[in-house]
Amino acid sequence: MSCFRVEIDGGAWGNPGEAGAGVVIVYPDGTREEHTVYLGHATNNVAEYAALLAALARLLQLEAQEVEILTDSELLARQLTGAYKVRAPHLKTLWQRAQAALAKFSRVHIRSVPREENTCADRLASQAIAHKRSTLPSPLVP
Question: What is the domain partition of the chain in residue ranges?
Fold first, then answer.
């Protein structure tokens, strides 16, 4: 079984403000998908979780088993690995959804990377906001 690599980023213009997420999925053979997710009004942290949830939903569609997740959000990475507690009530629900989705994979590695190593996902998040466009469903819509 080969590993999928996922690069995610979320952002808000204003915090909170117009928000979007970017997702890059790199298949084990090196081919890739790039996605935008327009989120409407949200905070940066909610947008980061939305990027993760959108990516995980797509990976489950692809029947991926092993996943490496790269994010420039140290908060997200540390909350997901248990190094930080999730105190904000509005993030707890998103964290719980993320934990449930992550449990469906046989192996998950979450890594925080510097912003300059996450430029493609960042660009996609900005495009989602600028064009109010999604190529993956928003995980924030019930």
Answer: 3-131
8 Å CB contact between 74 and 32: no
Which residue(s) pair with 40 in the sheet? 19
CATH 3.50.30.10: does it fit domain 3-131? no
**pLDDT tens-digit series, residues 76-106:** 999 999 999 999 999 999 999 999 999 999 9
pTM as predicted: 0.96
The token pair at 106 is: 């046989």
